[in-house]
Amino acid sequence: MAIQKIIKRKAILLSASLLILASCNTNDLIDNRTDNPPTRGDINFQISIAAPAPEPQTKAATAPDFTTTFEDGDAIGIFAVASGSPLTPSGNHIHNARLTRNGNSWDLDPGITLWWPTSGGTLDFYAYYPYHEAATDPTAITFNVKADQSTAANHNHSHLLTAATSGYGKNQTVPLTFRHALTMIQVSIPGGKGWGDERFSVTLRNVKSGATLNLNNINNTPGNEITLDDDNNPEHITMYRLAEATAGNYIFRALVPAQTIAQGSNLFLFDCAGQALLRDEALTEALTMTAGQADKFTRKIPYPMIETVTIPAGTFLMGSPDTEPDRRNNETQHEVTLTQDFRMSKYEITNAQYVAFLNAAGVGSDGSRLTIQNGQKLINKHPCSVTYNDNETSWVFQSGTEDHPISYVSWYGAKAYTEWVSQTTRTDCRLPTEAQWEYACRAGT
Fold this sequence. Notes:
single chain
């Protein structure tokens, strides 16, 4: 099973015992320049990323287990004001200066110099990542996570980190320790057998992706500096799949502003190339996210899922022509129009798929269930199909026949299977009509 590219930066899940992974370099920002006038001095920064905060005991589903590193090409924006003064939309001592990571140094954009105030005194510094050239007002920086975070680049650049420090003056190195202002949503899917390869994707549903950043509000509470935009319509986020996951197991992540998702919401949509869909179970309680931490979920995907194809609307001659072998004498060909597209299973339902239903539904050895009226059997045991193992009290298929079409199933058994699939996947699944079946099988011939 193919696993996508290894994530190189920004969100590497590590065990809670690893406290910090950070770049911690002190670099002269004015490379190969003369200090002129020498009394003002260059400003040097020590840039790092904070270790996650301890996990709140009251939130068992949350773990502070995403840490971050900067890579070459990453750029941060810096503001500074006289100590004790608030940031303003313009006129700050340093105003949205861009520093870009380059090996072991952070380089200023050409033509920019950073000096201490000629009048002396100290400065308060504010910084954010990723850099936005249009972020001229540090009290109202607009930010949106990527709607498609399936690629490493989009996922990495959906991070939002901030830093602030106060009271530093000439001849002092300014420490800027960044921390996460967003939250991470993670879903682990153990035993992903039957879900194909790189076509498997997960969507985080109906979350707000836009926020406004006010650097004046940075304090000891992560995320306090951002507010959700009022006109922020919920959207779907395609999640990033970790390459580090073991074979047959998946881990997906997305970064979003901290928010509350209402009880009853379906948080995830699982998809295999648009052909096998599974909507997540409804949340039993509201999910309240915390900035700088990860909300983790585990979801078991029913195996095996049903791969479907789209059958386009159209018109065909239903019934057999006189020349077709084995036709019934009472058939009369007639034109039928299907006005809407529909989706149908690409393959016949297999032994493995039907056995999964029989065992999950608790069907007894006689092939019937109490919920079936008049004692109708769902299936007749047959060695060419599936049988009931009395020792294991479960239905089984012969080795090597898991992908063979299921047989000896009654109409009641077929209908019960579709009802189970509908309930399991939270999608609308039913048996095709006679016209839909024949139209799909003839396939334009």
